[in-house]
Specification:
This protein is an alpha+beta fold and 113 residues long. It has one domain. Helices cover 27% and strands 39% of the residues. It contains two helices and seven strands. Strands 3-1-2-5-4 form a five-stranded antiparallel sheet. Strands 6-7 form a two-stranded antiparallel ribbon. Strand 6 and strand 7 form a beta hairpin. It is globular. The relative contact order is 0.24.
């Protein structure tokens, strides 16, 4: 059986109090969460405070091919919907936290933030 990958929606609050929404794919959610926490603490912009961590809001297991398709489609959708200002590494800088986002994978999931 092919190994599953995960498409995820997560967030963190940066040192300026901005809500930073992140989408991505991984085959190991816990490892990826720790990588995001470590890397965003060192980021030059939208830095994660030392006492905070990256958090997942939602994730879904899919095939590797589908996770990449869903990630690309969701990125374009969030940009078109102006969810926030798109910044490097599939992040969206939100001045105010959205109440929810929609992710479509066959059906549309409304994800409460």
């Amino acid at each position: 059986m092919p190994e599953k990958e995960y498409f995820y929606v997560g967030y963190y609050i940066d040192i300026n109090g901005n809500y930073v929404l992140k989408i991505g794919t991984t085959n190991d959610l816990e490892r990826r969460r720790k990588e995001h926490t470590r890397n965003y603490r060192k980021a030059k912009t939208n830095t994660l405070p030392p006492n905070a961590e990256f958090q997942y809001v939602w994730y879904k297991a899919l095939s590797k091919y589908n996770t990449l398709r869903v990630e690309d489609r969701t990125r374009q959708q969030f940009i078109a919907e102006q969810i926030g200002k798109f910044v490097r590494n599939d992040r969206f800088l939100c001045e105010t936290k959205p109440n929810f986002v929609n992710v479509t994978i066959r059906k549309t999931y409304q994800i409460a933030l």
